[in-house]
Amino acid sequence: MNFWIIAGAIVLVVVVLVIANRLGWIDLSDKSRAKGGSGASGGGVLGIGDEVFAPRKYEAQVELDRQSRMPAPAPVAGDGDKGIFTDGPVRIRVDADGNPTDSVVRAKR
After folding, report:
1. 14 with 44, same domain?
2. Most distant CA pair in the chain: distance in Å?
3. What tens digit of pLDDT does each residue of 52-84 get?
4. The whole model's pTM is what?
5. Which DSSP letter does residue 56 get?
């Protein structure tokens, strides 16, 4: 008789977890494999433990994941052309108001 109570409780917990995952109440997806990650993010069921019992570690991991998906920073003045303009200098002509009128790429000689 005790076996059926324990088995029923386990089945009930699994059903509740599946329903909660489908409704979006919890997230049991393995994010470490989603985009070829290294497995260090601790996604899945064990990631819930970090979120509840080690929130600083969890927030740091979320921030690290967010920063790793950010695009490369835009170049700043003084960086050089980084090999983009191999045909020579680019001249942009502007009118008196500062609006561009045309651009000219002068080839190297």
Report:
1. no
2. 92
3. 777 888 888 888 888 887 777 777 787 776 666
4. 0.33
5. H
